[in-house]
Please model this.
Amino acid sequence: MTTIIGAGGAGLNFAKQWKDKNPEDEAIIIEEHIKRGLPIQCTGILTNEIDTLLPKKILDKITLNKITQTKVFSPNNSTLIKISSDRIICNKTFIELLHEKAEKSGVKIKEGYKYIDNKGSTIKIRNTQSQKITEIKDQKLVGADGPTSNVAKNNLIYSKRNFLTGVQARVKIKDLKKEQIDFYPYIGRYAWAVPESDEIARIGVATSKNAKKLFDDFIKKYPGKIIEMQGGPIPLHKSNTHVINKQKNVALIGDSALQIKNTTGGGIVAGIKAGNVLSKGFEKYEKNLKELNKELKIHYYIDKVLQKYSDKDWDILIKKVNNPKIKEILLTKNRDNAVKLINELAKQPNMISEGIKAIWKLV
Model:
């Protein structure tokens, strides 16, 4: 039996893929929350890379809005960049549909149960209503239980982790540009305004300190009626993260494995890709993750450089990006294919100095 802890996007997708490939194996998901898709703790932006990973029928059902341009701000400059259509999704509907797909494949889902620990082939779980503890037996265990993963902690694959705090509000705003994301990479770690419709936007910040104050100051840029507050910890990817304990047959996927783009906090696509990789076999998991890890590593180093940028550096960078050739590259290459994106940008003469500056700041 294979047990998955966590019924988020990564856990549900993996469970379905695993069951489809191993129909004889019993697959069970243990999920702490009873209300599917809640609480919402992400902005729900997906690049067109998702079109290669999920059926169009699901994507059409979960898509609230499509974005065709991003306005990127520095302290004193801004530039408008055309992009090849990001999807803004309904996170709750997304999880509900993945639930249906997993159950149709034969995956069993136990909601309202919290994972406690595992020893040998025994997993302890607690009913969140009655507090009764029960035990289940398994052969393989998958941690898809979020940034502070208890599966990782209990199986010696947690290591030292760093987090950002994300604070987001859904705000009703007049005269909202439905097709445009506003992105502020110099505020906190980054800040955003993402329209989910022509009248509601998701406004938020991610930072390592003073999150509430930063959010309170930032949201003044977008006056309107706050409908709902959301938020939570955002893990930071780091190189050489342990994602599997082969002796115990325990593996991690998604946020629990720090599979996230440090430049934007995006982790849905990476979590789905990692689940697809793991479904091909536990024994080849680390080896088959090399391509995904390469992409995430680039975001790690870009973020590391950008954290050292001054206001002047940001103004210079945005001015350089405001170039027809650069914008054409950003239109045709999405951020989930960072290797291709960086290779193309590196060929542009006015970006060479930025490359040199990046190397200098890393050193």
Summary: The domain at 62-90+163-235 is CATH 3.30.9.10 (D-Amino Acid Oxidase; Chain A, domain 2). The longest strand covers residues 78-89. Residues 290-306 form the longest helix (17 residues). The chain has twelve helices and 17 strands.
